[in-house]
């Protein structure tokens, strides 16, 4: 296997060396590191011949020739799998400026060979989702932010530039109010990456033309719901591109860049201190709160996450000191231990199962209580038994009492243990209810958000409708303008026709003047005639003048033609004709030009109107598609809304059920408590009664002992077996008495002398009783406890 097993919970540390850049190549020195054959070891070359090379071992070492796909396979693929199983995952890149962190994490999104971990991960996640079982429903959310100058800026909504960090049991550490967009395919994620990257703080330095001036966090949350049992799992994936540590002497940072560099180095120092505290085995406090970076990465460093650290290095001796420091950082980080767990939420079915188990437990307990009660009742009969009818051996009674007490005590212990389990379970149930209530609140939040979204979509629709109306109005105005222009053009055409007619008439007139002889007026008076002659003369003069001018012009032209062309126009008429035609042509050209301009304008208007018509059609089409999409969206939202409402109702119902079940189990617990109290009370009674019995027994023993002493004193008898007959006295004064059990009283002693028979004048001797039955000698030797007891 290529990667090390992370079942130990340790952070995996991978080391990547980039190829030499142009600047380093220009310095013409060799690289300062050697790579071991096991792909895990890197050696910093020894400075002198006598000194040893420094050896560093990581989970994997990538030499400069390693391609992006290999990095993804080793570094990210296992974490993607874990996130898909409901674990949290983190990959972060650390290293000096220009060491290749951004190239490793993002690379060139549009190039399949050069794309980095994030775009590859996105593709992988959606491929896995598409291949997943049908009953698993996925939602994917993406957030993107940066920590710049100790402030968290939302890269998908840069107006939010000072977000706060919070922590709670259910979500762990999180950034409050961070925009998280739901995405359904890799293209949508790439678009968000593009937007976010454009909003990032990047600047030129002497070390890197596109140096990241902030730490960036790309966050993907994948939630999966199993539709069969409604269980949910949710994995959060942080992909962190840290800003590079830099020596300001090398980067040439000044002014704002210098301030940025100070902040970057400060937060990286805080990161180093957190790692030290986690790994030195001495620190009781981990200073997560010393910087925003370490606070956000709290779960990734020593918490609930499967984490991989990629340290990026330059192989050139110019960066040797920074490379050494980076390698040491990686070695320290290797021993951080995390406690990753699947983020699972209990389903209603699972909660039901827990309840059923709790009920079974209660039933079991009830049974035990009834057994206890029976035992107590049984011992009560024994204790309360009639003195006369109690012929049972007392020692047996004692033994049975003691064993009953032992059983009862054991039962009580068991019950107490079970009750404490019950209390634990109840508190677990309460926690579950709290989680469910929170979930309900979240669903309600989603529901409100959807409502808002619908509202904004409706607003958008209204705006689009009004834009459309404006466009339609504009088109109407254009059509009217087009109509006016058409009229103008037709009136211009008419004018042109008129002008052409006038020119033709004029030409005819001129021709007439020139060709037709003028007839003398027949009936005119002299004055008129003179006037006409004057007019004609004037006209003639005018004509002559014109013709002179024409002749002059012709002569001039003739001269020019003679000068310029060998085949000049030979006759004047032709010249005149030519000139006239030229004049007409000139006017015609002017008119044609004007007409052409008008036609062009008209054409342009026509084209514009066609374009507008197309635009209108497109807008209409877009509008109808949008309307369709919108109505679909609204439909979807409504159905989602409905299902949310349903699940909200269901959850409310479930939480009610849980509450009522909790209340029920509380009541049952109270009942059990009461029963337990009763049992305790009975036990106490039993104990008191047993104590009394013992006292009575002691009294009886004392009495017998006294009596026995008395007999011994009187030398009557030592021990008498049960059922024996004692004879005291002699002759007729003999008194016989059978001894039964321990209750017999024997009328012996000097006070009985009045009852005595004084046969043959002898006095009865009460001082020497003797046994009449049983083998008394044998009996006397018997031990006290066997079958011979004092009565
Ligand atoms: N493995 C590699 N192969 C080819 N080019 C690389 C490689 N690693 C880095 N580069 C190039 O080196 C330059 C610097 O890399 P990059 O910007 O990723 O560094 P960085 O560590 O993110 O720097 P900073 O901390 O200043 O942002 C870029 O032009 C990048 O394309």
TrEMBL record:
InterPro entries (alphabetical): Kinesin-like_fam, Kinesin_motor_CS, Kinesin_motor_dom, Kinesin_motor_dom_sf, P-loop_NTPase
Disordered: annotated segments: 740-774
Pfam families per record: Kinesin
GO biological process: microtubule-based movement
UniProt keyword terms in alphabetical order: ATP-binding, Coiled coil, Microtubule, Motor protein, Nucleotide-binding
Domain Kinesin motor: 10-336
Name of the protein described by the UniProt record: Kinesin-like protein
Originating organism: Blepharisma stoltei
